[in-house]
Description:
Largest sheet: 14 strands, antiparallel, barrel
CATH architecture of the largest domain: Beta Barrel
Number of strands: 14
Structural class: alpha+beta
CATH class of the largest domain: Mainly Beta
Oligomer: single chain
CATH topology of the largest domain: Porin
Strand order of the largest sheet: 1-2-3-4-5-6-7-8-9-10-11-12-13-14
Distance between the termini: 125 Å
Helix content: 10-25%
Number of helices: 4
Shape: globular
Amino acid sequence: MYAKILLMTAVLLSGQVYAQATGAQTTTTKKEKTKKKKAVPGATSATTTEAQTTTTTAPAATPAPEVKPEEKKAEPVVAQTTGQQILQYMKDHFSASYHGEYYFQRRMDDFFATNDENNKDIQDIRYMHNPTVIYKPTKNWQVLATSEFKYTDAPAAQRGSFVNDYYRSLFTVTRKGIMNEKEYGFNLDAGVGRRDFNTRVATASYGNYRAFSTISKTFGKHNGSLFVQYLFNDPKNVKSASQWKHGLELIPTVNLQLTDKLSYLFNDDIVINTSYLDTNARDYYISHEMNLAYVNYQWTDKISTYYQLKYYHTEDFSKAFQSKDDFMEHYAGVGYAVTPKITITAEVGNEIIHAHDRRDFFGQKAAYPEFALYLDAAL
Length: 379
């Protein structure tokens, strides 16, 4: 009997131990599996809860708050120094350019044939430096200053022309956009200026005062303009027979864009001056410098070519044989843009017809072309 009781007790105890052992193994396995779950940032760790309570099921995780991308902070504005402000103002309101002309010429300036055959050879170089500065204090106002310096390696300087010195300057103030094409159908600019000569080497004038205006209009791809200028002379010697008092200058211009690359320009620089002296045979002086044709072809962004045909007519204050003069010139050139702001142009041309050179048709210079180089640079 006691043996049966002891046997039953042993069986029960062994079953309870087996059950406890099995339950502990199951809990350990679940805890190990739970530890492999990735924790959600900001949530209570399920693994930690299981380790503390030995619970086989982890509580629901709290949703993570939305993580916004970090906003780009505005860079602090660095205050410019006084020097930097001055440089920035000059960059915004000032511009400068240079135009240079270099001529390789013969000594055949007289109307009549020269007696010296050597004068028909290219032997002189004449060159001009022409710097220009433009100041724009506002969008519609412009102040321009430009000067010419003329030199030659000829045996003697040419009075009134290539004087081996500073030659002349021009100062103008212009109001742009007084009228605009959108509202009025045309553009209108106007201004005033002063021309000054180097009186040590120039003609018998200190300079002249001027008031001018420009009317322009576009016609599709084409455009035209009319420049009108009144001049009042400031003479150094009022007794000179060649001295003028009042002047009127007219420059009509027509520019036709024939194709995307081919353009044609016509203009005529007409000057009419009144005599300073009442004793002159004629009361007025008139001159034309007319571009009968300026045809330009743009081959590439860098290379362009042109042909120019010009007509000149002059009448001075006298009625002498040579007081009226007419002649024509033609030129051909090629331009190369070294950079967007630097251009070099090579040109060949000469006079082809002259009224007073004792030739029937072609002038004496028709067989003697001259050469020139032009340099343009902008800052």
